[in-house]
Amino acid sequence: EVVLTQSPATLSVSPGERVTLSCRAGQTIANNLAWYQQKPGQAPRLLILGASTRAIDVPARFSGRGSGTEFTLTISSLQSEDFAVYYCQHYNGWPPEATFGPGTKVDF
Amino acid sequence: QVQLQESGPGLVRPSDTLSLTCDVSGHSITSDNWWGWIRQPPGKRPEWITYFYYTGSDYRNPSLKSRLTMSADTSKNQFSLKLASVTAADTATYYCARSSGGVVPNWFDSWGHGIQVTVSS
Known about the structure:
The complex is a heterodimer of chains A (108) and B (121). With 108 residues, chain A is mainly beta.
């Protein structure tokens, strides 16, 4: 099982700031990583797949980078609707499985 | 646009079997997609339960593997999950989701709203 760690656990920011979240894999996973946003009482929403490809209808202020074991999600200018918890997810191991990181909470 | 909706009991007694159904609209479950179940205990990260293909193929979380049964009803465009011998540790919000198409399942691009399930006597 691939273990994912995320940092920081909590990030206190203000609207308009640039935010970078980190996800680290315990072993190399190529670019088999997705990012999700989850707001209270809602299901996770897919933001990024393949480490760097934005999902449909995701604003351009969200970008993903990385490969191997180190990955980042950047929000170029934080909007009020971006306050949420962000999870990374590994996929495409063998046998196929999905593993989620512990999350980073972005709040005021 | 695909929509998913979970249904089932909100309260299950310990040692009983949890049964959930996911109704899918706007997309056929027989299309080239895997489908999934994910759960999330309160305040914790999501936990993957299973990837499921309508023909019956599946991949399961090893920690839950022996307690899981999955099935599909293509006439109703729905798929189902059964989790046997539940304990308090199975208390969570359960989500069904669509995994993108391909030979190997991967990310989840559409999710249901989730159903809160509590295991308690």
